[in-house]
């Protein structure tokens, strides 16, 4: 029994030492001169790197540790115990499995097949080394006279290196095969359920909103993954002995006083909430009442929170991976609305204000652009040639029509009350360098067709704008491009309908755009109904119906695209997108 306790005790000490040694000391470059080194489980990317260094370390390190223990026992003339030191190696693999699956709670990330193969290799080699070095009863470290007789060990090491590298090149021993995405997701969701049951009262009191809770639990899961219970116990002991500032608790909050896990959750929640409020308050000040926490805003805010919390290189990617793995909560609480209520209100525009205007014709509309903050269109109209002294609006003649160019306008709302602006030829509207612009309840209808040989401008174009909201906008393009967005920030299309477009219905370049509760139908698009490049696109609660395209409904070029409750029906497309865009798209089959 004493031998068993001794071996398991030594194995436990060695397991804890492996966590202290760290990844950098085990870098492959220290062994072979190149490579990425020891591979840890990472969230946020699907690594295909070989685990050869992991295999070498987990086989060789316990044997070297066993030899050092045996040498020390021989020095103190405890030869019988030295001969039993070989059992430290299999005990280490048992302790390793128990600590990972039970104590650390990472059973979802534990691959029994891989661990068994490594344990068998290490155990067999340990008994071979014991037979050669320990059982003869001589000193383990060779003398000068014995050195030449043990050169065969060099040959064995070279042979082992060949075997282990052959084993490491196997596709089955790549990181993405040993620890799969499914294993990571199960670990994340299981930990979320456990932590929510334990800390929900604390989190819900400080941050009752949907978004913040997902961020907090994402950070909690990742910090717990990096600092297991036993490691946190060690940190507590070191803190009590040294009384210096340290990061403690499950959320690894820096503190000058001793705190438990529940207190660290409370402090971590406050820290996350403070970063969130600072970001939103600054955004509201920049965009006034037109700011919406939509489109690419949640992800940009998440990156800011992560940088404030921990500036490590891979920290943001890991938290984002966990954040998007967690299911979206359904709380009727809007964090940004609560912040807006606390901030100073801007003066509301009334119908009696000088900033308010009611117009009946396109000429009147163009004259008021940039001079009024709220314009209400009361009659249907069409784009016509005009001469105006308004420096913000210029009408350029194009093919059989006119393009109204609106420049340098800020804080403008144009309300149409479902009025129609009729277009002929290449008629359209172009907004340049505008900020906080809302178009609400306006229909743009193309009256005639533009010949194919004419490169017509899109009906709506936005260049270098910010804070653009297109609410309940309808476009009937009749074989023209619908909306083109170039180098714009915070563009939101909500409750819109785009139909009859050719080439592309909505195209965005170097922009962040959100599309919600909108319909795309009968668009004959060679380049995709929606095309986005070098930007962010978030589509939710929208429908793509009967859009005949040559290849992809959504064409993605180097962009971050997310879909939630997007329904697709008919159209004869080849595939939804040329790149993976998640699980939020549902193809509805025709029942006929």
Automatic annotation (TrEMBL):
<protein>
    <recommendedName>
        <fullName>Right handed beta helix domain-containing protein</fullName>
    </recommendedName>
</protein>
<dbReference type="InterPro" id="IPR011050">
    <property type="entry name" value="Pectin_lyase_fold/virulence"/>
</dbReference>
<feature type="transmembrane region" description="Helical">
    <location>
        <begin position="116"/>
        <end position="137"/>
    </location>
</feature>
<feature type="transmembrane region" description="Helical">
    <location>
        <begin position="55"/>
        <end position="73"/>
    </location>
</feature>
<keyword id="KW-0472">Membrane</keyword>
<feature type="transmembrane region" description="Helical">
    <location>
        <begin position="85"/>
        <end position="104"/>
    </location>
</feature>
<keyword id="KW-0812">Transmembrane</keyword>
<keyword id="KW-1133">Transmembrane helix</keyword>
<feature type="transmembrane region" description="Helical">
    <location>
        <begin position="149"/>
        <end position="167"/>
    </location>
</feature>
<dbReference type="InterPro" id="IPR012334">
    <property type="entry name" value="Pectin_lyas_fold"/>
</dbReference>
């Amino acid at each position: 029994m004493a031998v068993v306790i001794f071996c398991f005790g030594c194995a436990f000490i060695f397991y804890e030492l492996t966590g202290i040694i760290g990844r950098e000391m085990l870098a492959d470059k220290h062994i072979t001169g190149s490579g990425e080194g020891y591979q840890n489980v990472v969230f946020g990317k699907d690594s295909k790197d070989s685990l050869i260094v992991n295999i070498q370390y987990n086989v060789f390190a316990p044997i070297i540790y066993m030899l050092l223990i045996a040498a020390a026992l021989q020095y103190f003339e405890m030869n019988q115990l030295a001969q039993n030191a070989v059992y430290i190696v299999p005990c280490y693999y048992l302790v390793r499995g128990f600590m990972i699956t039970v104590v650390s709670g990472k059973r979802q990330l534990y691959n029994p097949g891989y661990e068994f193969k490594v344990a068998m290799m290490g155990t067999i080699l340990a008994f071979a080394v014991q037979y050669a070095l320990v059982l003869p009863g001589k000193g383990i470290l060779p003398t000068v006279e014995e050195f030449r007789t043990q050169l065969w060990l060099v040959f064995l090491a070279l042979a082992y290196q060949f075997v282990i590298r052959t084993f490491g090149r196997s596709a089955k021993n790549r990181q993405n095969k040993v620890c799969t995405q499914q294993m990571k997701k199960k670990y994340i969701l299981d930990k979320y359920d456990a932590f929510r049951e334990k800390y929900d009262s604390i989190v819900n009191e400080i941050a009752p909103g949907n978004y913040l809770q997902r961020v907090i639990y994402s950070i909690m899961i990742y910090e717990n993954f990096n600092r297991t219970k036993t490691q946190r116990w060690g940190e507590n002991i070191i803190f009590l002995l040294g009384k210096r500032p340290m990061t403690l608790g499950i959320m690894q909050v820096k503190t000058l006083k001793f705190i438990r896990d529940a207190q660290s959750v409370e402090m971590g929640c406050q820290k996350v909430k403070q970063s969130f409020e600072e970001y939103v308050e600054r955004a509201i000040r920049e965009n006034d009442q037109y700011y919406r926490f939509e489109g690419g805003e949640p992800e940009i805010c998440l990156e800011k929170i992560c940088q404030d919390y921990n500036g490590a290189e891979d920290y943001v990617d890991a938290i984002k991976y966990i954040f998007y793995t967690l299911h979206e909560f359904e709380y009727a609480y809007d964090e940004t609305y609560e912040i807006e209520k606390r901030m100073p209100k801007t003066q509301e525009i009334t119908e009696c204000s000088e900033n308010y205007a009611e117009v009946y014709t396109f000429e009147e509309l163009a004259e008021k652009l940039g001079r009024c903050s709220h314009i209400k269109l009361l009659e249907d109209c069409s784009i016509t040639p005009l001469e105006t002294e308004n420096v913000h609006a210029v009408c350029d003649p194009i093919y059989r029509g006119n393009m109204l160019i609106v420049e340098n306008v800020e804080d403008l709302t144009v309300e149409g009350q479902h009025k129609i602006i009729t277009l002929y030829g290449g008629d359209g509207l172009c907004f340049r360098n505008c900020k906080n612009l809302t178009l609400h309840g306006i229909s743009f209808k193309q009256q005639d067709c533009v010949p194919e040989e004419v490169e017509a401008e899109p009906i709506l174009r936005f260049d270098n704008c910010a804070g653009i909201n297109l609410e309940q906008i309808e476009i009937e393009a009749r074989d023209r491009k619908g909306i083109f967005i170039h180098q714009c920030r915070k563009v939101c299309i909500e409750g819109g309908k785009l139909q009859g477009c050719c080439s592309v219905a909505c195209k965005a370049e170097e922009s962040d755009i959100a599309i919600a509760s909108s319909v795309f139908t009968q668009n004959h698009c060679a380049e995709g109904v929606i095309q986005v490049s070098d930007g962010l696109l978030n589509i939710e609660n929208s429908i793509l119906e009967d859009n005949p395209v040559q290849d992809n409904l959504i064409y993605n070029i180097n962009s971050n695209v997310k879909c939630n409750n997007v329904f697709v029906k008919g159209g004869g497309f080849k595939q939804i997108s040329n790149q993976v865009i998640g699980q939020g798209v549902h193809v509805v089959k025709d029942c006929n």
